[in-house]
Amino acid sequence: MIPYRPEPLTDFNNPANQEAFAAALAKVEQELGRTYPLVIGGKRIDTGRYIESINPSKKAELVGRVAMAGKDEIEQALKAAWDAYRTWSRMPVIERAALLFKTAAIIRRRKHEFSAWMLLEAGKSRAEADADTAEAIDFLEYYGRQMIDLARRADDLLTPLSGEDNHIEYIPLGVGAIIPPWNFPLAIVTGMTVSAVVAGNTVLLKPAIQTPVIAYKLVEALEEAGMPAGVVNFVPGDPAEIGDFMVGHKDVRFISFTGSKQVGLHLNELAAKQIPGQRWIKRFVAEMGGKDAIVVDEGYDVEMAAKTIVQSAFGFSGQKCSACSRVIAHESLYGELVDRVAELAKAFKVGDVRDASVGTGPVIDQKAFEKITSYIEIGRGEGRLVAGGTASNEVGFFVNPTVFADVKPDARIMQEEIFGPVVAFTKVRSFEEAIEVANSTDFGLTGSVLSNNREHLAYARHHFHVGNLYFNRKCTGAIVGVHPFGGFNMSGTDSKAGGPDYLLLFTQMKSVSELL
Ligand code: NAD
């Protein structure tokens, strides 16, 4: 088999690619406003109640209406998933992996179309959407190969014992609930769904309420690739109505969650409670928020640092769990760096991402807009505003890149996840102090160190406590198979999506021994 290699990103400087993307966008625009059903056991179900998915760049534009599942539909989906599990769990690994490879090929052929849906439903710029689609393809290619390797390597791990024939096998768990966030509406949804499925499980996929249409497009691609009925059941809905019900259900064997700390902790507690009829300890995988820092050391090039910070903090309006929201800079370059980042932030063009010259688009919805602007108000009391601080939700949900200087490490905007284009600066006198400040939140997801000092990099390698540590580069943009992704502490269970151990989370090892 051809080894896994990450999907190349589209070069949008090439006019042919620009045209191909524009054509895909025009096609998708023709399809706006359609209605999408649930998919349970392969059947389309229209419940007559809908999520209205809107374009965050232009809130009057309806992207699509998606049927909402209630508790009855969750019960039906669980039954369909357990029925499908009987055959899917026994399907040869190579055939399950083939479903992923075929789906990757389908998405690759219609790459710009998938990206265009994200541009309209999630407010991603062309380049950010293209990277999201490429990552979805990567997860399909990578987990397919990982599962084949896992099945092959199993027996090699054992120590031979004369007189016995011993085997191990990684078998699936059962039916799982897949609960992804909206911010990587294709990549994370695909990764979380197909990792469980390729390992032989069947699932209920409850997409985020903000981005259900693109999730439906994934389900269509899986079906086109030949996925049997009931393997992935598509059950969007109001989390307040079906979320707790699904996670707390006795027939759910595992929960794969990516989202906020608050929701993750709540679901962890719910999943831990054994209820009558439940025959297992539910497996709970949770990847949660971040409060990611870039440390800038004495002597580092200010221009390079400023560009790295702006890219990490304001790409996709800072709506990445890995986005930089804190800068911890040495006093020798602090003032110059703050000024340069403020300049670059002010030059950022914010607007409807259909305009290719826009630097960053909207935030996802009214709730996010309110949360981010309320943190900007808090920031005014905690630091010195040097860029941004303005926002408008008249047409879409736009927040200008915002920079606060002179913020104390224990300030709220230095401790709490804002999930928007807001970055706070703090000044330190030594590298050791910088790392201490960097480690002083509940989170531990990503972090970057910008330094020319090898001893300092070695110090950070040991002391900077984050799941994904980067040296002399941005703190976003983990690539499947290259940078296994997941955080420490309140950032989650460190599942390391896109890493060599990830599939183990959706399997259990069976050991069979026969006396010869
Ligand atoms: P969120 O916690 O609001 O929602 C995540 C998912 O949980 C959604 O599908 C939502 O509908 C669902 N949900 C909410 N309440 C529920 C309940 N009671 N029962 C069941 N499901 C429920 O998060 P979000 O706003 O969608 O995403 C942003 C968050 O995700 C940020 O905190 C970000 O840092 C985090 N995130 C983390 C990673 C990572 O890999 N660590 C990646 C992307 C995003």
TrEMBL record:
GO terms for biological process: L-proline catabolic process to L-glutamate. Pathway: Amino-acid degradation; L-proline degradation into L-glutamate; L-glutamate from L-proline: step 2/2. Its EC number is 1.2.1.88. It catalyses: L-glutamate 5-semialdehyde + NAD(+) + H2O = L-glutamate + NADH + 2 H(+). It holds the Pfam family Aldedh. GO terms for molecular function: L-glutamate gamma-semialdehyde dehydrogenase activity; proline dehydrogenase activity. InterPro entries: Ald_DH/histidinol_DH (IPR016161), Ald_DH_C (IPR016163), Ald_DH_CS_CYS (IPR016160), Ald_DH_CS_GLU (IPR029510), Ald_DH_N (IPR016162), Aldehyde_DH_dom (IPR015590), Proline_metab_enzyme (IPR050485), RocA (IPR005932). PROSITE patterns: ALDEHYDE_DEHYDR_CYS, ALDEHYDE_DEHYDR_GLU. One of its GO terms (cellular component) is cytoplasmic side of plasma membrane. It is an enzyme of class 1 (oxidoreductase). Residues 49-512 form the Aldehyde dehydrogenase domain. Keywords: NAD, Oxidoreductase. The keyword NAD applies. The keyword Oxidoreductase applies. The active site is at E287. Belongs to the aldehyde dehydrogenase family. RocA subfamily. PANTHER family: DELTA-1-PYRROLINE-5-CARBOXYLATE DEHYDROGENASE 1, ISOFORM A-RELATED, DELTA-1-PYRROLINE-5-CARBOXYLATE DEHYDROGENASE 2, ISOFORM A-RELATED. This is L-glutamate gamma-semialdehyde dehydrogenase. It comes from Alicyclobacillus vulcanalis.
